[in-house]
Amino acid sequence: MTPAYCFIILTYNEQQHLPRLLASIKGLNAPVFILDSGSEDDTIAIAQQAGAVILQHPFENHPKQWDFALKSFEIKTPWIICLDADQEVTPELKEKLVNFKDEDHLDIDGIYFNRKNFFKGHWIKHGGYYPFYLLKMIRYGVGHSDLNENMDHRFIVPGKTVVWKKGHILEENLKENQISFWIAKHNRYSDLLAHEEVERMQKLRLQTLKPSLLGSPDERTAWLKNLWWQLPRYVRPLLYFTYRMIFQLGILEGRTGVIFHFLQGFWFRLMVDVKIDEILKGEQKKEDKKTVAASPLRFVFTFLLLFLVFYYFNIAFFGITSPGKLYSPFLADNLNYIQGLRWVLLSCSAQILNWMGFTAIHNGTELLVVGKGTIVLIYSCLGLGLMSFFAAFVIAYPKKLKQKLIFLIAGVLTIQVLNITRFVLLALFWNKKASKIIDHHTVFNIILYIIIMISLYFWVTKNNQAPADQHA
């Protein structure tokens, strides 16, 4: 009787991992095919002892290696399960595979497995890393490797897919217990990803999948990638890391997990952005610099004028919405964006503190943390001066409107995310007696102005548009 599925495994010096994977699928009576990239350890001997069919092929990138594997092995099963050597099948998933029958899935082209990822022995279960679904089981002759990706490899099937939420594949690269290996590996990956993104700027590489936030796991990933490519470089790693740490609860991961999220979510993404600029260097037309050089006085005048307008408008509006001679009840009750901003900042701070296990409430102006004390958000806490400076510069600078809007929104959100982080830390650790020695408003403003100036520098000097379209 022909088995319902077979396994294809990619290897390169995997004597440390391959026995673990082979042991996890032992007893399934499924053929095993191994595509090796020129291992110099005992990987081949281990594969031969397990009775696997072995081919060797030089490695260029994961998508091309999988494409070669799917086209080169003599597959006789209706389904293929595609695994990396540092993965293994859990007993729960193995039980589902034991009971798998092709006749029960005739209308299905692909099956997503749920993955648990490990770093230095620690399960990464926050920061968007769990649950995490990978299309690992595909119908033979129907599914194929997505060659429009340079680093992230995925399989594409035209028909219906299902997600197996129960049962897992465990992924743990034991070589990464040495941080030097992890850094060297992701340094190579950052080269691949930077070249890929430049090619996408030049319209030489397109998405295979239709992006959809409500679609399959891979269609959702494609949608998020489209969003990522629209964000300004150097700002997006900070936004992504902040999102993973706060909104996806990466802060609860513990020391090892936080290190992972910093390296994978910030350091790696920042390296990609730096390398993109290195690739584009020399191809840039430097339109921004030429434009500014042609009319520097106009830019300076517009920037100063806008800054003064924004800055003093906020002060004036705060004055007429606060009790006093010029108090306007209508504006205070209906259009008070300053009070609205304060409420949003306090609500977000209180929610984060509650997620962290503290009891926090606010009344619109004060944040109370049970057992810690109270902080009061006055006008100078809101960052309106910082946002006025940032907005005036971005609006005055001669760039395309779309670039301005994206960078402006990302910058304002980043300022307020850092502001919320400050309020959470102040609520937990600030000693009011220390305010006589250290003015945390001044310290925060200095830090933020430094971040803003660095961000503006990279935004001004980065490529405004991709080089002229080329054709493959």
Helix content: 40-55%
Query: What percent strand?
Result: 5-15%
Please indicate the count of domains. Answer: 3
Task: Report how far apart the termini are.
Answer: 47 Å
Are there runs of 5+ residues with pLDDT below 50, and where? 463-472
Element-by-element helix/strand order: EHEHEHEEHEEEEEEHHHHHHHHEEEHHH
**Which structural category do the helix and sheet elements fall into?**
alpha/beta
3D architecture notes:
By secondary structure, the protein is α/β, with parallel strands linked by helices. It has three domains: 5-177, Spore Coat Polysaccharide Biosynthesis Protein SpsA, Chain A (Alpha-Beta Complex), CATH 3.90.550.10; 179-280, no CATH class; 287-461, no CATH class. 49% of the residues lie in helices and 15% in strands. The chain is built from 15 helices and 14 strands. The protein has helices at 18-24, 43-49, 62-72, 91-98, 179-201, 217-230, 236-247, 255-280, 287-294, 296-320, 329-334, 337-355, 384-396, 401-429, 440-461; strands at 5-11, 32-36, 53-56, 79-84, 87-89, 110-119, 122-123, 133-139, 144-145, 155-156, 161-171, 360-362, 366-369, 373-376. Strands 1, 2, 3, 4, 5, 6, 7, 8 and 11 form a nine-stranded mixed β-sheet that branches. Strands 12-13-14 form a three-stranded antiparallel β-sheet, covered by helices on one side. Strand 6 and strand 7 form a beta hairpin. Helix 7 (236-247) packs antiparallel against helix 8, helix 13 (384-396) packs parallel to helix 15 (440-461) and helix 14 runs antiparallel to helix 15. The longest helix has 29 residues, at 401-429. The model is unreliable at 463-472 (pLDDT under 50). Its main location: membrane. Residues 7-126 form the Glycosyltransferase 2-like domain. The chain crosses the membrane at residues 299-320, 341-361, 373-398, 405-430, 442-460. It is a multi-pass membrane protein. Keywords: Cell membrane, Hydrolase, Membrane, Protease, Transmembrane, Transmembrane helix.
